[in-house]
Design brief:
This protein has two domains: 1-56, no CATH class; 74-192, no CATH class. The protein is 50% helix and 10% strand. The chain has eight helices and four strands, in the order H-H-E-E-H-H-H-H-H-E-E-H. Strand 1 (31-33) and strand 2 (36-38) form a beta hairpin. Helix 5 (88-97) crosses helix 8.
Length: 192
């Protein structure tokens, strides 16, 4: 840790060796396929795809019908609030409520960076939020995510011993936080 404080994030020999060590440590070198050890990356990719497609496939229709059920609806003023433009105060609050020290997103920035530079970045963040509000989507590149496999056990040998997580961009997290805050206020009005 002292080397980190001494050399910082510069592209020093220490920095590159740390990144190289971490990459090697996290690399999946092989898995058991049909009771045999396999290190072929194409075979491992096919097996990962198969396992997680099986795990996340749609469930069959359970025959539940809700035709005669009457659902509560929101009052008109609350419904209109749900389609209003995001306010700067809401967005700022969402940014400050996100964990700041977690791994940076695909763009390399975490929430501590955004908070520290809020005065500089807020116009761009708000422009992205308004763009999302108007179109319902973010520009290509802003909505990409990666699936990472996190080991459930110390030395995983099969695909089932990994847990998939999705690494999403900061803007998605901000939008989700703002909208979940909105939903939190209306859900008690429609669900007993």
């Amino acid at each position: 840790m002292s080397n980190w404080f001494k050399y910082g994030d510069s592209n020093s020999k220490f920095y590159h060796s740390t990144i190289r060590w971490r990459r090697l440590k996290n690399e999946v070198k092989g898995v058991e396929l049909n009771d045999q050890w396999c290190e072929d990356s194409d075979a491992m990719r096919r097996e990962v795809k198969r396992v997680f497609e099986d795990r996340f496939k749609a469930t069959p229709d359970l025959g539940v019908r809700l035709g005669a059920v009457e659902f509560k609806s929101l009052p008109e003023d609350v419904s209109l609030r749900m389609v209003e433009v995001f306010s700067e105060e809401e967005v700022r609050e969402a940014v400050w409520h996100c964990e700041g020290t977690k791994s940076p997103g695909l763009d390399g920035f975490n929430f501590n960076f955004i908070r520290a530079n809020w005065e500089t970045l807020k116009e761009d963040v708000m422009e992205a939020m308004h763009c999302f509000h108007e179109t319902g989507s973010l520009p290509n590149g802003c909505n990409s995510s990666f699936i990472a496999l996190v080991p459930k056990v110390k030395d995983p040998t099969t695909i089932d011993q990994f847990r998939p997580i999705s690494l999403v961009e900061v803007m998605y997290k901000i939008i989700t936080k703002v909208m979940s805050h909105w939903f939190k206020t209306v859900i008690p009005m429609v669900i007993d």
